[in-house]
Amino acid sequence: MEMVMLVAITLMGFADGTDCFTDYLRAADYRGTVNKARNGMTCQKWTSQTPNTHKKLQDHPYKGLGDHNFCRNPDGDDWVWCYVPDRSVRYEYCDIGSAQPTCGLTNHGMECFTDYLWAADYRGYVNKTVNGRTCQKWTSQTPVTHTVLQDHPNRRLGDHNFCRNPDRSDWAWCYTTDPSVRYEYCDIGRAQPTCG
User: Fold this and answer.
1) How far apart are CA 131 and CA 49, in angstroms?
2) Is the pLDDT of residue 53 over 90?
3) What's the CA gap between 39 and 71, in Å, rounded?
4) What's CA 57's distance to the chain center, in Å?
5) C-alpha closest to that of 166 among 194, 138, 196, 136
6) Are 13 and 189 in contact (CB under 8 A)?
7) Is the Cβ–Cβ distance between 160 and 148 less than 8 Å?
8) How far is the C-alpha of 118 from the C-alpha of 134, rounded, in Å?
9) Distance from C-alpha of 28 to C-alpha of 54, rounded to nearest angstrom
10) How many CA atoms lie within 13 A of 125 on its CB side?
């Protein structure tokens, strides 16, 4: 039986540099920045197919994977892991510390939403995309011009850059501050049966 997990607001851990996750069995909610395997090798980027080819990005969307090489557990393995540049080993587990029972509550407040299909009720504070791009404020028209505020009133958009899903897209998303990427989806964790 899976544990109900609390997801920290930031994707990169606490402001003091420590990483926080609550799933002490498998660390599936780990979103920190450790990028070395236990054997000391630097992890392969999840978007890379060299030297290890894989379909993790396609098979496990919204699991913290993206254009980075941070350790993750997108597939329910025993612990967080990453592909390593050694074809004889392929992947290796990572040392990320211990789970925190109050991660996301004591220091950051709780991220919680119940719409497991679209995350349309997500009202949390994640403001980075799955690839680590900073979200553009919804009230801003730079670098992306849009009409989403007018097209979707009363969807809790405003003078902030938190990920939302006002238009029933596939998942919570935001416009990015990267002029070459109009919008991207966000890693906001997963829905909970109840909130509050």
Assistant:
1) 16
2) yes
3) 13
4) 12
5) 138
6) no
7) no
8) 21
9) 19
10) 10
| Across 21-48, average pLDDT | 88
Residue 98 neighbours by CB distance under 10 Å: 8
| C-alpha closest to that of 113 among 175, 184, 163 | 163
Measure the CA–CA gap between 196 and 184, rounded to whole angstroms: 28
- What is the rounded average pLDDT of the residues 32-50? 94
From CA 87, how far away is CA 81, in angstroms rounded?
15
> How high is the pLDDT of residue 185?
93
Beta bridge partners of 183: 175
- Which three-class secondary structure string do you get for the chain? CCCCCCECCCCCCCCCCCCCCCCCCCCCCCCCCCCECCCCCECCCCCCCCCCCCCHHHHCCCCCCCCCCCCECCCCCCCCEEECCCCCCCEEECCCCCCCCCCCCCCCCCECCCCCCCCCCCCCCCCECCCCCEECCCCCCCCCCCCHHHHCCCCCCCCCCCCECCCCCCCCEEEECCCCCCEEECCCCCCCCCCC
Model confidence, pTM:
0.49
Fill in the amino acid letter for 20: C
| Bridge partner residues of 92 (DSSP) | 82
* Residues 114, 194 contacting (CB under 8 angstroms): yes
Q: Which residue has the tokens 């496990």?
A: 60
